[in-house]
Design brief:
Blueprint: H1 5-23, H2 27-32, H3 36-52, H4 71-81, H5 87-90, H6 97-107, H7 110-121, E1 127-130, E2 147-151, E3 154-165, E4 172-178, E5 190-196, E6 202-208, E7 221-232, H8 243-279, E8 281-283, E9 286-287, H9 292-322, H10 328-353, H11 355-358, H12 364-371, H13 381-397
Parallel strand pairs: 1-4
Antiparallel strand pairs: 2-3, 3-7, 4-5, 6-7, 8-9
Helix pairs in contact: 1-4, 4-8, 4-9, 6-7, 6-8, 8-9, 8-10, 9-10, 10-12, 10-13
Length: 398
Amino acid sequence: MAISDKDFQDIKDRIAKFVQQELLGNEKQFQAKHTFADHLPYLEEKRNQVREMGLFTPQIPKEYGGLGLSLHQLGQIYEILASTFYGLYVFNCQAPDAGNMEILMDHGTDYQKETFLKPLIAGKIRSCFSMTEPEFAGSNPLMMGTIAKKEGSNYIINGHKWFTSSAEGANFAIAMVVTDPDNPNPYLRASQIIVPTDTEGFNFIRNISVMGDEGDGWNAHAEIRYENCTVPEENVLGTPGAGFKIAQDRLGPGRIHHCMRWIGECERAFDMMCERAVSREIAPGKTLASKQTIQNWIADSRAEINASRLMVLDAASKIDKSGAASAKIEISTIKFFVAQVLQNVLDRAVQTHGALGMTDDTFLASLWRHERSARIYDGADEVHRSRVAREILKEYSK
Ligand SMILES: Cc1cc2nc3c(=O)[nH]c(=O)nc-3n(C[C@H](O)[C@H](O)[C@H](O)COP(=O)(O)OP(=O)(O)OC[C@H]3O[C@@H](n4cnc5c(N)ncnc54)[C@H](O)[C@@H]3O)c2cc1C
């Protein structure tokens, strides 16, 4: 049963209060300490508080212990949590775990749910998603070199992946691998297989040094080599050959999560820009706010953020009503549009702060570094633009 507007407002207010009181005030310590392991005791303490409030893992259906929110409602929660770096992690709705939970809820067997999903929902373990490969264009996932060969009741995986985010310290990976290379339908060639990270042959090579993600553990992106990595066939998700279908199911809601998170980040940067504009004196009695260029940045940012929110919530409503397949154009449109709005707003906020914007004395510089990749991950801008145009033009060529 859908949650009432009043109950939802109450949840939003409680989450906003928690973020304000418990997380925003403690951000400085994250800038001072750099390893994820250093942050864990503090993060676990905050997670326990969220568990006690009954708001942990809010994104999942009630039957799995979540809040049973619609995607439209969930988007609004993501926006609030994203105003601070660890907000989503503290509520256990961070990528890539949230996406992996969805896959396991929709396609997992009883064994897979018991072994992998349950502890993931409880926040006892972490996971990663291992698809992109350095030797092949990630923009065309039909081109993949990692092969899983069936031998008896096992699959033997060999291949090379990178940008397996959060792999260090993860308990398992969901690996996208080719299981049927000769299938005439290229969309039936790949499968998703659960690989426990302590399996022999799951070789963690390194955390790649990535702009904005210079950390470790959950905050890093790993290179992995699968070398005769052997897993039982019961680790295949759904049916063999269903890899692309499962990936497709996951992408719609995932993009709503990303975009609403970016809007939360925009709002934070916007606040900082406005506060700086009214407080920075540039001549006796005159602040930055008196300059038309700054006023234009503020007005343009407000308009772009508001437009983004409406577009994303509209896409979320469409998915809630008729499924992700009905909202292909909307999903791709928000992915490239909001990623660019995020770059615009962050850049204006940094510029308004002058030299201070380049330092790590505020949250802005790390956000700017971290989110340049928004235009690349989960489909580069160019791929989404092209998809939107193709879908629109289909109608015109009929
Ligand atoms: C921070 C971050 C986290 C990530 N996390 C994960 C993860 O957890 N798991 C995972 O498997 N992957 C992950 N990725 C990988 C990501 O999904 C890929 O980077 C993305 O799909 C693009 O693939 P590629 O890097 O191989 O770029 P390529 O496919 O080589 O494309 C390079 C560029 O070419 C252009 N281009 C490509 N195709 C077209 C086209 N059709 N038309 C016009 N221009 C085009 C685009 O400008 C694109 O940026 C992550 C990436 C980043 C940056």
